[in-house]
Design goal:
The protein is an alpha+beta fold. It is built from 6 helices and 7 strands, in the order ββααββααββαβα. The strands form 2 sheets. It has a 4-stranded antiparallel sheet. Strands 6-1-7 form a 3-stranded antiparallel sheet. Helix 1 packs antiparallel against helix 4. It starts with 5 loop residues before the first strand and ends with a helix.
Length: about 160
């Protein structure tokens, strides 16, 4: 299902709140592998946990990207309450504590996150000839009809 291409133009229903969480790391000192690799290695366990327990945790979907120095993951959450609850969960707190003990303010590796709360009717999407992706994977994926052809119509403007 993940690779099935949906020909034509699609959008998502935007009738519910969605939280977009962008998180990543940047390798500032490439040769300090012994410092930044444990940070990099901590993420797969949390990703597996999120995929395995999506419904109960409130993580709707995610996408990952890897560059030469910077990684980024875009996550879609049901609510800020769910996201904050996950930030307080054991696996995340353990990784956060290890990061602060091993890296702290050394500058070897940087981490970042951004959180955006999207209100119903205040976001819109378009997917042309794409597999399920982004919000289209997280929310109900529907064909674009005549009454939703323009962004202003999809934004409930």
């Amino acid at each position: 299902m993940g690779n099935q291409v949906f020909n034509g133009r699609y959008t998502t229903e935007n009738s519910e709140e969605v939280v977009v969480f962008i998180i990543g790391m940047r390798i500032n000192k490439r040769l300090a592998v012994h410092k930044w690799f444990p940070v990099f290695k901590a993420m797969p366990g949390m990703i597996k946990e999120l995929y395995t327990h999506k419904e109960e945790l409130g993580c709707l979907s995610m996408e990952s990207y890897f560059g030469l120095r910077t990684t980024v993951m875009i996550q879609y959450w049901r609510s800020t309450d769910d996201l904050i609850a996950y930030a307080r969960n054991e696996k995340h707190l353990k990784a956060w504590k290890a990061f602060n003990q091993k890296i702290g303010a050394s500058g070897v590796v940087g981490i970042y996150h951004e959180t955006y709360r999207l209100s119903p009717g205040e976001y819109e999407t378009v997917y042309g000839n794409m597999p399920l992706y982004g919000l289209g994977k997280a929310l109900k994926h529907v064909p674009i009809t005549k009454n939703k052809d323009r962004a202003s119509q999809r934004l409930n403007a």
